[in-house]
Amino acid sequence: MKRLFLLPFYLLPVLLITGLPVTGMAQSADKIGNEFTAAISQFQLLSKNLPPDKLAQYSDHGQVKACGPGSWVAGFYPGSLFYLYSETKNSWTLEEGLRRVKLMEPEQYNTGTHDLGFMMYCSYGNLYKIKPGEAVKQVLVNSATSLSKRFNPAVGCIRSWGKISDTTEFRVIIDNMMNLELLFWAAKATGNRQFYDIAVKHANTTMQQHFRPDYSSYHVVVYNPKTGAVIKKQTAQGASDASAWARGQAWGLYGFTMCYRETKDRKYLRQAQHIASFILNNPNLPKDKIPYWDFNAPGIPNTDRDASAGAIMASALIELSSYVDKKLSATYLNAAKEMLNSLSGPAYKAAPGQNGGFLLMHSVGSHPANAEVDVALSYADYYYIEALKRLKDAGGRL
Ligand code: GLY
After folding, report:
1. Given the CA of residue 237, which atom of ligand 1 is nearest to it?
2. N or C: lower Cβ tally within 10 Å for the chain?
Protein backbone atom coordinates (compact mmCIF):
# COMPACT_ATOMS: atom_id res chain seq x y z
CA MET A 1 0.00 0.00 0.00
CA LYS A 2 1.34 3.40 -0.94
CA ARG A 3 1.61 5.98 1.78
CA LEU A 4 0.97 9.64 1.20
CA PHE A 5 3.33 12.21 2.62
CA LEU A 6 2.41 15.60 4.01
CA LEU A 7 4.96 17.88 2.41
CA PRO A 8 6.40 20.97 4.05
CA PHE A 9 5.74 23.99 1.79
CA TYR A 10 9.46 24.66 1.29
CA LEU A 11 9.88 21.40 -0.60
CA LEU A 12 7.37 22.39 -3.28
CA PRO A 13 9.97 24.14 -5.50
CA VAL A 14 12.12 21.01 -5.42
CA LEU A 15 9.13 18.94 -6.45
CA LEU A 16 8.47 21.26 -9.36
CA ILE A 17 12.11 21.02 -10.43
CA THR A 18 12.34 17.26 -10.12
CA GLY A 19 8.80 16.69 -11.40
CA LEU A 20 8.23 14.08 -8.75
CA PRO A 21 4.71 12.76 -8.34
CA VAL A 22 3.64 12.22 -4.75
CA THR A 23 3.48 8.45 -5.29
CA GLY A 24 7.11 8.63 -6.44
CA MET A 25 7.90 10.26 -3.13
CA ALA A 26 6.55 7.21 -1.32
CA GLN A 27 8.73 4.85 -3.36
CA SER A 28 11.64 7.20 -2.92
CA ALA A 29 11.38 7.28 0.82
CA ASP A 30 11.10 3.51 0.92
CA LYS A 31 14.21 2.89 -1.20
CA ILE A 32 16.29 5.34 0.78
CA GLY A 33 14.72 4.00 3.97
CA ASN A 34 15.85 0.51 2.97
CA GLU A 35 19.38 1.82 2.63
CA PHE A 36 19.21 3.17 6.20
CA THR A 37 17.88 -0.15 7.54
CA ALA A 38 20.61 -2.08 5.73
CA ALA A 39 23.22 0.33 7.07
CA ILE A 40 22.14 -0.39 10.65
CA SER A 41 22.63 -4.14 10.12
CA GLN A 42 26.07 -3.51 8.65
CA PHE A 43 27.07 -1.27 11.57
CA GLN A 44 25.91 -3.91 14.05
CA LEU A 45 28.49 -6.17 12.44
CA LEU A 46 31.09 -3.40 12.42
CA SER A 47 30.48 -2.78 16.12
CA LYS A 48 31.36 -6.42 16.86
CA ASN A 49 34.61 -5.97 14.91
CA LEU A 50 35.65 -2.95 16.98
CA PRO A 51 37.23 -3.07 20.45
CA PRO A 52 34.99 -1.19 22.93
CA ASP A 53 37.52 1.63 23.36
CA LYS A 54 38.06 2.28 19.64
CA LEU A 55 36.37 3.84 16.62
CA ALA A 56 36.12 2.80 12.98
CA GLN A 57 38.91 3.68 10.56
CA TYR A 58 38.79 1.40 7.51
CA SER A 59 38.28 -2.12 6.32
CA ASP A 60 40.66 -3.74 3.86
CA HIS A 61 38.50 -6.38 2.18
CA GLY A 62 36.85 -7.28 5.48
CA GLN A 63 39.87 -6.75 7.77
CA VAL A 64 38.72 -3.96 10.07
CA LYS A 65 41.19 -1.39 11.32
CA ALA A 66 40.09 0.53 14.41
CA CYS A 67 41.45 3.91 15.50
CA GLY A 68 41.75 5.89 18.70
CA PRO A 69 39.66 8.98 19.48
CA GLY A 70 42.42 11.34 18.30
CA SER A 71 42.33 10.14 14.69
CA TRP A 72 40.90 12.60 12.17
CA VAL A 73 38.35 9.95 11.17
CA ALA A 74 37.18 9.13 14.72
CA GLY A 75 33.93 11.12 14.55
CA PHE A 76 32.51 9.60 11.38
CA TYR A 77 31.27 6.32 12.90
CA PRO A 78 29.31 7.92 15.78
CA GLY A 79 28.20 10.69 13.42
CA SER A 80 26.82 8.11 10.97
CA LEU A 81 24.97 6.39 13.81
CA PHE A 82 23.36 9.69 14.88
CA TYR A 83 22.24 10.34 11.29
CA LEU A 84 20.72 6.86 11.21
CA TYR A 85 18.99 7.49 14.54
CA SER A 86 17.49 10.72 13.22
CA GLU A 87 16.11 8.83 10.22
CA THR A 88 14.95 5.59 11.86
CA LYS A 89 14.69 6.15 15.63
CA ASN A 90 16.40 2.78 16.03
CA SER A 91 17.48 2.76 19.68
CA TRP A 92 20.65 0.70 19.08
CA THR A 93 22.08 3.42 16.82
CA LEU A 94 21.68 6.02 19.56
CA GLU A 95 23.09 3.77 22.30
CA GLU A 96 26.06 2.68 20.18
CA GLY A 97 26.66 6.25 19.02
CA LEU A 98 26.67 7.53 22.61
CA ARG A 99 29.06 4.75 23.74
CA ARG A 100 31.53 5.59 20.97
CA VAL A 101 31.27 9.39 21.04
CA LYS A 102 32.03 9.41 24.78
CA LEU A 103 35.53 8.17 23.90
CA MET A 104 36.10 11.43 22.01
CA GLU A 105 35.23 13.85 24.80
CA PRO A 106 38.87 14.66 25.74
CA GLU A 107 39.53 15.75 22.14
CA GLN A 108 37.64 19.02 22.73
CA TYR A 109 40.93 20.36 24.16
CA ASN A 110 43.12 19.06 21.35
CA THR A 111 44.93 21.99 19.73
CA GLY A 112 47.31 19.72 17.80
CA THR A 113 45.03 19.12 14.82
CA HIS A 114 43.02 21.15 12.33
CA ASP A 115 40.74 18.15 11.93
CA LEU A 116 38.77 19.00 15.04
CA GLY A 117 35.89 20.17 12.85
CA PHE A 118 35.63 16.77 11.17
CA MET A 119 36.12 14.99 14.46
CA MET A 120 33.79 16.92 16.72
CA TYR A 121 31.20 18.53 14.44
CA CYS A 122 30.42 15.32 12.54
CA SER A 123 30.00 13.46 15.84
CA TYR A 124 28.93 15.79 18.67
CA GLY A 125 27.42 18.19 16.12
CA ASN A 126 25.12 15.44 14.83
CA LEU A 127 24.33 14.41 18.41
CA TYR A 128 23.38 18.01 19.22
CA LYS A 129 20.95 18.03 16.28
CA ILE A 130 19.04 15.05 17.71
CA LYS A 131 19.57 15.66 21.46
CA PRO A 132 20.42 19.31 22.09
CA GLY A 133 21.76 19.91 25.57
CA GLU A 134 24.15 22.11 27.52
CA ALA A 135 26.86 19.45 27.98
CA VAL A 136 27.09 18.64 24.26
CA LYS A 137 27.00 22.34 23.39
CA GLN A 138 29.94 22.95 25.73
CA VAL A 139 32.00 20.19 24.10
CA LEU A 140 31.39 21.81 20.70
CA VAL A 141 32.21 25.33 21.90
CA ASN A 142 35.41 24.10 23.56
CA SER A 143 36.32 22.30 20.33
CA ALA A 144 35.80 25.50 18.32
CA THR A 145 37.97 27.39 20.81
CA SER A 146 40.74 24.78 20.44
CA LEU A 147 40.52 24.90 16.64
CA SER A 148 40.66 28.71 16.65
CA LYS A 149 44.03 28.56 18.42
CA ARG A 150 45.52 27.32 15.14
CA PHE A 151 44.50 30.50 13.30
CA ASN A 152 47.32 32.81 12.23
CA PRO A 153 46.25 36.37 11.29
CA ALA A 154 49.41 37.00 9.23
CA VAL A 155 48.49 34.08 6.97
CA GLY A 156 44.74 34.44 7.30
CA CYS A 157 44.29 30.69 7.77
CA ILE A 158 44.00 27.91 10.30
CA ARG A 159 47.18 25.82 10.27
CA SER A 160 46.54 22.32 8.94
CA TRP A 161 49.58 20.24 9.76
CA GLY A 162 52.38 20.82 12.22
CA LYS A 163 52.84 22.47 15.57
CA ILE A 164 51.39 25.91 16.31
CA SER A 165 54.91 26.93 17.36
CA ASP A 166 56.54 26.11 13.98
CA THR A 167 57.94 29.41 12.68
CA THR A 168 59.34 28.08 9.39
CA GLU A 169 56.41 26.63 7.45
CA PHE A 170 52.64 26.95 7.73
CA ARG A 171 50.79 24.30 5.71
CA VAL A 172 47.15 24.58 4.73
CA ILE A 173 45.29 21.83 2.90
CA ILE A 174 42.06 22.23 0.94
CA ASP A 175 40.42 19.71 3.32
CA ASN A 176 40.58 22.37 6.03
CA MET A 177 37.55 24.11 4.48
CA MET A 178 35.46 21.39 6.09
CA ASN A 179 36.52 22.35 9.61
CA LEU A 180 34.94 25.80 9.25
CA GLU A 181 31.42 24.44 9.80
CA LEU A 182 32.23 23.95 13.49
CA LEU A 183 33.27 27.60 13.75
CA PHE A 184 30.14 28.89 12.02
CA TRP A 185 28.07 26.78 14.40
CA ALA A 186 29.95 28.07 17.45
CA ALA A 187 29.50 31.70 16.34
CA LYS A 188 25.73 31.17 16.26
CA ALA A 189 25.64 29.16 19.50
CA THR A 190 27.68 31.65 21.53
CA GLY A 191 27.22 34.99 19.74
CA ASN A 192 31.01 35.24 19.62
CA ARG A 193 31.77 36.87 16.26
CA GLN A 194 35.43 35.82 16.37
CA PHE A 195 34.59 32.26 15.31
CA TYR A 196 32.74 33.62 12.27
CA ASP A 197 35.52 36.04 11.35
CA ILE A 198 38.17 33.29 11.47
CA ALA A 199 36.06 31.02 9.26
CA VAL A 200 35.45 33.79 6.70
CA LYS A 201 39.09 34.83 6.62
CA HIS A 202 40.22 31.22 6.12
CA ALA A 203 37.70 30.74 3.30
CA ASN A 204 38.79 33.97 1.59
CA THR A 205 42.51 33.14 1.77
CA THR A 206 41.85 29.62 0.49
CA MET A 207 39.76 30.96 -2.38
CA GLN A 208 42.61 33.26 -3.34
CA GLN A 209 45.54 30.85 -3.01
CA HIS A 210 44.37 27.27 -3.45
CA PHE A 211 42.66 27.53 -6.84
CA ARG A 212 43.95 27.41 -10.39
CA PRO A 213 42.31 29.29 -13.28
CA ASP A 214 40.22 26.20 -14.14
CA TYR A 215 38.92 26.08 -10.52
CA SER A 216 40.69 22.84 -9.68
CA SER A 217 42.59 23.14 -6.41
CA TYR A 218 46.05 22.42 -5.09
CA HIS A 219 46.10 20.07 -2.16
CA VAL A 220 48.64 21.95 -0.02
CA VAL A 221 49.68 25.60 0.12
CA VAL A 222 52.74 26.33 2.25
CA TYR A 223 52.91 29.84 3.72
CA ASN A 224 55.52 31.79 5.61
CA PRO A 225 53.94 31.95 9.08
CA LYS A 226 55.45 35.39 9.82
CA THR A 227 54.59 37.23 6.60
CA GLY A 228 51.82 35.12 5.07
CA ALA A 229 53.76 34.91 1.79
CA VAL A 230 53.19 31.76 -0.24
CA ILE A 231 56.32 29.54 -0.28
CA LYS A 232 55.01 26.73 -2.49
CA LYS A 233 51.94 24.91 -3.74
CA GLN A 234 52.08 21.14 -3.81
CA THR A 235 50.34 17.85 -3.15
CA ALA A 236 50.51 15.17 -0.49
CA GLN A 237 47.74 12.79 -1.49
CA GLY A 238 47.35 13.66 -5.17
CA ALA A 239 49.13 12.34 -8.26
CA SER A 240 51.31 15.44 -8.67
CA ASP A 241 51.58 19.05 -7.51
CA ALA A 242 49.68 20.14 -10.63
CA SER A 243 46.98 17.46 -10.51
CA ALA A 244 43.41 17.55 -9.21
CA TRP A 245 43.22 15.11 -6.30
CA ALA A 246 39.62 13.91 -6.37
CA ARG A 247 38.80 14.16 -2.68
CA GLY A 248 40.39 17.60 -2.54
CA GLN A 249 37.96 18.78 -5.24
CA ALA A 250 35.14 17.26 -3.19
CA TRP A 251 36.21 19.03 0.01
CA GLY A 252 36.36 22.34 -1.87
CA LEU A 253 32.91 21.86 -3.40
CA TYR A 254 31.37 20.95 -0.05
CA GLY A 255 33.29 23.64 1.85
CA PHE A 256 32.32 26.59 -0.33
CA THR A 257 28.69 25.41 -0.58
CA MET A 258 28.59 25.32 3.22
CA CYS A 259 30.24 28.78 3.42
CA TYR A 260 27.48 30.17 1.20
CA ARG A 261 24.83 28.58 3.46
CA GLU A 262 26.42 30.18 6.53
CA THR A 263 27.22 33.65 5.15
CA LYS A 264 24.94 34.15 2.12
CA ASP A 265 27.98 35.74 0.44
CA ARG A 266 27.47 35.04 -3.25
CA LYS A 267 31.18 34.81 -4.03
CA TYR A 268 31.19 31.45 -2.21
CA LEU A 269 28.20 30.29 -4.24
CA ARG A 270 29.99 31.23 -7.47
CA GLN A 271 33.11 29.40 -6.28
CA ALA A 272 31.12 26.25 -5.51
CA GLN A 273 29.46 26.42 -8.93
CA HIS A 274 32.83 26.75 -10.66
CA ILE A 275 34.17 23.74 -8.74
CA ALA A 276 31.04 21.76 -9.63
CA SER A 277 31.56 22.65 -13.27
CA PHE A 278 35.21 21.51 -13.14
CA ILE A 279 34.09 18.16 -11.70
CA LEU A 280 31.00 17.49 -13.76
CA ASN A 281 32.48 18.57 -17.12
CA ASN A 282 35.80 16.84 -16.57
CA PRO A 283 36.60 14.41 -19.42
CA ASN A 284 38.10 12.05 -16.85
CA LEU A 285 34.91 11.78 -14.78
CA PRO A 286 33.75 8.23 -15.53
CA LYS A 287 30.27 7.38 -16.82
CA ASP A 288 29.08 6.22 -13.39
CA LYS A 289 30.26 9.59 -11.99
CA ILE A 290 32.46 8.08 -9.27
CA PRO A 291 35.85 9.73 -9.80
CA TYR A 292 39.21 8.12 -10.10
CA TRP A 293 41.31 8.91 -7.02
CA ASP A 294 42.81 11.84 -8.96
CA PHE A 295 41.37 13.49 -12.07
CA ASN A 296 44.89 13.32 -13.53
CA ALA A 297 45.86 9.92 -12.16
CA PRO A 298 48.35 8.03 -14.27
CA GLY A 299 46.85 5.00 -15.96
CA ILE A 300 43.24 6.22 -16.26
CA PRO A 301 41.01 4.24 -16.89
CA ASN A 302 43.03 1.44 -15.28
CA THR A 303 43.36 2.90 -11.84
CA ASP A 304 41.42 3.06 -8.58
CA ARG A 305 38.18 4.90 -8.02
CA ASP A 306 37.52 6.86 -4.85
CA ALA A 307 34.00 6.19 -3.58
CA SER A 308 34.59 8.61 -0.69
CA ALA A 309 35.07 11.49 -3.16
CA GLY A 310 31.86 10.44 -4.95
CA ALA A 311 29.87 10.40 -1.69
CA ILE A 312 31.16 13.82 -0.58
CA MET A 313 30.44 15.31 -4.03
CA ALA A 314 26.91 13.86 -4.05
CA SER A 315 26.13 15.33 -0.65
CA ALA A 316 27.53 18.74 -1.62
CA LEU A 317 25.71 18.81 -4.98
CA ILE A 318 22.36 18.11 -3.32
CA GLU A 319 22.84 21.11 -1.05
CA LEU A 320 24.16 23.27 -3.91
CA SER A 321 21.10 22.38 -6.00
CA SER A 322 18.91 24.21 -3.49
CA TYR A 323 20.73 27.55 -4.03
CA VAL A 324 20.64 27.88 -7.83
CA ASP A 325 18.17 28.37 -10.67
CA LYS A 326 15.88 25.60 -11.86
CA LYS A 327 18.05 24.39 -14.75
CA LEU A 328 21.30 24.21 -12.77
CA SER A 329 19.46 22.72 -9.83
CA ALA A 330 18.28 19.84 -12.01
CA THR A 331 21.84 19.36 -13.34
CA TYR A 332 23.30 19.14 -9.84
CA LEU A 333 20.53 16.93 -8.47
CA ASN A 334 20.69 14.55 -11.40
CA ALA A 335 24.46 14.25 -11.09
CA ALA A 336 24.16 13.58 -7.36
CA LYS A 337 21.51 10.94 -8.00
CA GLU A 338 23.70 9.24 -10.59
CA MET A 339 26.51 9.16 -8.05
CA LEU A 340 24.22 7.75 -5.36
CA ASN A 341 22.72 5.17 -7.71
CA SER A 342 26.24 4.02 -8.57
CA LEU A 343 27.28 3.89 -4.92
CA SER A 344 24.16 1.97 -3.87
CA GLY A 345 24.69 -0.63 -6.61
CA PRO A 346 26.76 -3.81 -6.39
CA ALA A 347 29.88 -2.20 -7.88
CA TYR A 348 30.42 -0.12 -4.74
CA LYS A 349 28.04 -1.22 -1.98
CA ALA A 350 29.15 -4.28 -0.07
CA ALA A 351 26.84 -7.29 0.16
CA PRO A 352 25.16 -7.67 3.57
CA GLY A 353 27.51 -9.19 6.12
CA GLN A 354 30.64 -8.36 4.07
CA ASN A 355 33.25 -5.59 4.16
CA GLY A 356 33.73 -5.93 7.95
CA GLY A 357 30.46 -4.03 8.41
CA PHE A 358 31.39 -0.94 6.38
CA LEU A 359 28.90 0.09 3.69
CA LEU A 360 30.92 1.14 0.65
CA MET A 361 33.90 -0.48 -1.02
CA HIS A 362 36.56 1.10 -3.26
CA SER A 363 37.85 4.25 -1.63
CA VAL A 364 41.40 5.56 -1.47
CA GLY A 365 43.11 7.15 1.53
CA SER A 366 46.49 8.06 0.05
CA HIS A 367 47.70 6.54 -3.20
CA PRO A 368 51.19 8.12 -3.11
CA ALA A 369 51.76 6.70 0.38
CA ASN A 370 50.26 3.36 -0.66
CA ALA A 371 48.04 3.67 2.42
CA GLU A 372 44.36 2.66 2.47
CA VAL A 373 44.15 2.02 -1.26
CA ASP A 374 40.94 0.38 -2.55
CA VAL A 375 39.47 -0.02 0.93
CA ALA A 376 36.28 0.87 2.79
CA LEU A 377 36.59 4.18 4.64
CA SER A 378 34.47 5.49 7.50
CA TYR A 379 34.05 8.88 5.86
CA ALA A 380 32.84 7.37 2.59
CA ASP A 381 30.02 5.77 4.60
CA TYR A 382 29.34 8.97 6.56
CA TYR A 383 28.89 11.19 3.49
CA TYR A 384 26.94 8.44 1.69
CA ILE A 385 24.41 8.37 4.53
CA GLU A 386 24.37 12.17 4.67
CA ALA A 387 23.77 12.41 0.91
CA LEU A 388 20.89 9.91 1.10
CA LYS A 389 19.37 11.89 3.96
CA ARG A 390 19.74 15.16 2.02
CA LEU A 391 18.17 13.60 -1.07
CA LYS A 392 15.26 12.31 1.01
CA ASP A 393 14.83 15.69 2.74
CA ALA A 394 14.79 17.37 -0.71
CA GLY A 395 12.00 15.05 -1.83
CA GLY A 396 14.25 13.23 -4.28
CA ARG A 397 14.48 9.51 -4.87
CA LEU A 398 17.10 6.98 -5.83
N1 GLY B 1 41.66 15.02 5.36
C2 GLY B 1 42.35 13.94 4.83
C3 GLY B 1 41.77 13.30 3.64
O4 GLY B 1 40.84 13.72 3.00
O5 GLY B 1 42.33 12.27 3.32
Report:
1. 5
2. N
